[in-house]
Design brief:
By secondary structure, the protein is an alpha/beta fold. It contains seven helices and seven strands. α3 packs parallel to α6. The N and C termini lie far apart (118 Å).
């Protein structure tokens, strides 16, 4: 009888020990990271209305793409809603900013070839951005390890990070529409900081087969940063005074070409 009681005590002690360890394990385990709320990117640039007109007419052409990076991003902008929204917003934002600076604006046109001769003759310049850039989402810092559970034993674990990075540049191009001569160019290097997500433990994500809201949000924030950088540079470089000088030079060019 005494041996039976001892056995029961030992069994009870064992169960208490196991449940105590489980309780300690649950108490010390970090809480699961909540899923981030989806972020809606904003592509809007504030403008200041000029007090005088520039007496310069600019025909806007939609963004163009060149180079390996640019052509890759052109595809991205067709299939990804964030990239498509940014590229689409740029045309409207260019239009708003140029009008605010006192320019007369025509278009936008899909390409210079889509403009008729009267439309080209009526414009002092054709203005458009050229994308030779790309935005990538890369899996980084992949780490493999093991974890031990009382219930399931030892299992493999993987953690990683994700980096959203912009590279390349965007050129602002101004040409004389009848001759096609390039009159002005400013190249803007993309120096926006990378957006990073760390401590991901989802094996599908670390294996490049999944995506989280946090990753999508960083993709959106990177595109917002690109848009803001482009618009700030456009605002800085495009002035009525400089384009009046360019208009005089374009008139001299047309006279030489007998347009």
């Amino acid at each position: 009888m005494k041996r039976t009681m001892n056995n029961r005590v030992n069994m009870l002690t064992g169960f208490v020990t196991v449940f105590g360890l489980l309780g300690m394990s649950c108490a010390s385990a970090p809480p699961a990271k909540p899923e981030a709320k989806p972020y809606e990117p904003h592509f809007k640039y504030p403008v200041e209305i000029a007090k005088t007109k520039a007496d310069v007419t600019v025909a806007l052409v939609s963004p163009q793409f060149e180079g390996q990076d640019g052509l890759l991003y052109s595809h991205t902008s067709k299939v990804d809603p964030t990239a498509r929204s940014m590229v689409g917003a740029i045309g409207g934002s260019f239009n708003e900013l140029l009008i605010a600076k006192g320019f007369n604006v025509a278009g936008p046109f899909t390409a210079l070839a889509d403009m008729t001769f009267p439309e080209k003759k009526g414009a002092d310049f054709v203005f458009y951005p050229v994308f030779n850039m790309n935005v990538s989402m890369n899996i980084v810092d992949v780490k493999h390890g093991t974890e031990t559970s009382i219930l399931t034993g030892t299992s493999a674990t993987t953690s990683c990070g994700v980096k959203v990075l912009a590279s390349g540049d965007i050129a602002l191009i101004v040409i004389e529409p009848l001759s096609g001569e390039k009159m002005w160019q400013k190249r803007i290097a993309l120096e926006t900081p990378p957006m990073s997500v760390e401590g991901i433990t989802n094996p599908e994500v670390c294996g490049g087969q999944g995506i989280t809201n946090e990753m999508k949000n960083d993709w959106s924030l990177q595109h917002e940063a690109i848009y803001a950088s482009l618009m700030k540079n456009l605002d800085k470089y495009v002035t009525a005074e400089e384009f009046r000088v360019l208009k005089t030079q374009a008139g001299e060019l047309r006279e030489k070409k007998k347009y």
